[in-house]
Design a protein that fits this description.
The complex is a heterodimer of chains A (73) and B (250). By secondary structure, chain A is mainly α. Chain A has two helices and no strands. In chain A, helix 1 packs antiparallel against helix 2. The longest helix of chain A has 36 residues. Helices cover 66% and strands 12% of the residues of chain B. Chain B has a two-stranded antiparallel ribbon. In chain B, strands 3-4 form a two-stranded antiparallel ribbon. Chain B has a two-stranded antiparallel sheet with strand order 5-6. The chains are: A mainly alpha (73), B mainly alpha (250).
Amino acid sequence: MEGLKDIATAIAIAVGAIGPALGIGMIGKGALEAVGRNPEAANEVRTLMILAVAFAEAVAIYALVVALIIKFV
Amino acid sequence: MSSLHISIAAEPVFHIGDFAVTNSLLTTFVVMLLLFLIAASVSLAPVTTVGGKKIKKVPALVEMFVGGFYNFLSPILGKRIESLFPLLMTFFLFIIIGNWIGLLPGVGPIGFTEHTEHGELFVPLFRGPNADLSTTLALALVSVIATQFLSIKALGAAGYISKFINFKNPINFFVGILELVGEIAKVLSFSFRLFGNIFAGEVLLIVISFLVPIIMPIPFLGLEIFVGFIQALVFTMLTSVFIVVATEHH
């Protein structure tokens, strides 16, 4: 039972991190392309990028919370 | 201690009647005391007259922080920054000091052992305020309720209700339901984002210093300082963006 719990924890965070990882990569790519095309807008793009990354990262955090709950509760 | 001590919930330190005072609540009061001392030292600062103008001698660090944050938020909020800045700056200062206080040595290791029916249990005296879901849930509720209040103030009661319940056409009706779900999801995502990041940081630091007790934890401490700053910034920025969106006329 304890071993199964560990495996469940690992799967929860590993699968849950795939989507946000791809998403954050795409957001970074988009932001870099935008800054490359229009360097004057770097400050504005950075603010929007942090906001978008925070939304994508929230999904990974849900997976993390689930993993922590499986592990410690 | 031979094994890792990680608890997802804050432990009660002592009781006042039926009310359990948890270690994160105790640390929250330390944070509040710190903020109060900073505020008192700024408001009691001596006033000098330079060139006919009265100027307050504010510590340079406080001025840098507040001024920098003001300049950061003003393009997002525009003219409304004058009325919203106190709320957002309070969020930012409380969250960032709460995040950083959890990284201090002594927060976590200092504590006492309690004898319960499950055997001996170690109870830390302090715990980072944002590593407790209660604190972050409270912050999220304050943020979302403030957004609703400002929205009612800007759009009027009828305009506010028509955002959620709208019978003009079927599409607006479903958009209204989605908006309603979105408001509840906001509370969840605000509280879980902050709690997850900070609690995961604490777990990471505990595990790393359990595996390699010397030198190795230092880069992770640097990372956690950065994460604490970014999370405070994200919370404040999302609050300001949501307020701007909720008070817009369509």
